[in-house]
Amino acid sequence: MAIKFKRTKIIASLGPASSEQETVNKLIRAGVNGARLNFSHGTHESHKASIEKARAAAKEAGKPVAVIADLQGPKIRVGELPKEGILLEDGQKISFAHDADYGDSGIIPMQHDLSDKVQSGESMYLFDGNIEVTVKDIDGGVINTEVVNGGKLTSRKGINLPDTDLGGDILTTKDYSDIGFAIENGADYIAMSFVQRAEDIENLREYLRKHESDIKLIAKIETKAAAENIESIVKASDGVMVARGDLAIEVGPEVVPVLQRKIIGLASEYGKISIVATQMLASMVDSPQPTRAEVSDIATAIMAGADSVMLSDETAAGNYPVKTVKLMKRVILYTESNAPIEPMYMNEDDNSQGSSIASAAITLAHQIQAKAIVAETASGRTARNIAAHRPQMPIIMATNNLRVAQQLAIVYGGKPYYLKSPKKAGDKAINKLREDQKLDAGDVVVLTYGEDPGVAGGTDTIKVREV
Q1: 10 φ, ψ (degrees, to nearest 5)
Q2: What is the pTM of this model?
Q3: What average pLDDT values come out for the chain (467 residues) when binned by 10 residues?
Q4: Where are the alpha helices (H) located in 91-239, listed in sequence order?
Q5: DSSP alpha helices (H): ranges in 375-456?
Q6: Is residue 267 part of a domain?
């Protein structure tokens, strides 16, 4: 193409550092394709304002942008402790209980009752994994433990339970309130925290179906159980996020790089979105320059074939949100230009018409060295099927459904175009590219479409067109 665009997409978390409309405009113009709302922080009022600003910025930039509602989930924390904290020593016996008063009882308070969840012999990790205790027994709602690795514990620090089965109880009252908000305010995706098995995703999907919502579901992979059930979770979801912070605590930091590559591969195999998140450019919260390790980390995710890479505190609370996005985009473009990934292949068991059309279109496009693949799509499935193969040329995704265009904004290799009429949407997208000088006269493209424009699942035709 005459003008190059990145294949790996950028998701930016919105927060205090990106609360002004002009900042959001700059973020999206700099290369942001998805706006994440972190429901662990903020209010519905502030998140509503963020959605409005993201939509306004997308309109100003002339491109669809996905809005992702990231649920807090059952984030388990200790309660209030003395201001100076408490020192836990190796071998010390210490107890935990829901809403305990440490000053009166010496029992560490917890914000959730886990006495019916944990079992003797299981490990509990506190304060980002810095402190480890082993459960010895449970007595009348009190969890008695022994300290394995001690340290100083202060109020409201998180607890990770890699050995504990939460039994499907992972959506809280707050989550349901946030889901209702996401439906009402037109979020494109919901990211579900602390998923343990495919049933967690299926239960939320059924809840959305009852509320007549077509929001797509992203499973956050951040528990040991999710890592063990990863293939079934990928199949049940619309996308997966490698949430490396809690995941490293649950499975061990040495496991995460290999597991990340496996998750990205499975997502591509089943035609699902993959997102790599957590501390991608963490040093740029305070510094205008990244570390060499962070740049290498981004490049590794790109070369593995991730659909999107995500920024958290860097854009939500950092000092250099726009500079961070621009740096990430430069890394993406350089990596994609100099270390292109090999085409991938979807699951062999998927012999559906859509998957077969996608495979044939890509083969043809490579054989004739097409400048682009143009996919007319009503539901987005045709475009996602093509993207899953990671073709070497851009994918132009033409749809008459604005919601679908927004959902496709974080899909690998794609450039979604929203066109009000489904009739000859692909041809209209090609003409728009020609007008914008992104295609030249004589360029060849491969076009996929259906005989019934705007009908989901109707893609049945492949056409070669010279611009």
Answers
A1: -115, 130
A2: 0.91
A3: 78 97 98 97 97 98 97 92 96 96 96 92 94 97 97 94 85 96 98 96 97 97 96 98 95 96 94 96 97 97 96 97 98 93 65 78 92 91 91 91 96 92 84 87 90 69 90
A4: 102-105, 173-184, 198-210, 224-228, 230-236
A5: 381-388, 402-407, 425-435
A6: yes
Same-domain pairing of 99 and 215: no
DSSP 275: E
Q: What CATH number does the domain containing 314 carry?
A: 3.20.20.60
Question: Can you tell me the distance from the alpha carbon of 423 to that of 183, in angstroms, rounded to the nearest whole number?
Answer: 29
CB 447 within 8 A of CB 462: yes
The answer to whether 292 and 283 have CB atoms below 8 angstroms apart is no
User: What are the phi and psi torsion angles at 123 (to 5°)?
Assistant: -100, 145
Residues 6+ apart with CB under 8 A from 199: 168, 236
Catalytic residues: 36, 77, 220, 278
- Please tell me the distance from the alpha carbon of residue 419 to that of residue 151, in angstroms, as a whole number: 58
- Identify the domain containing residue 93 by its residue range: 86-160
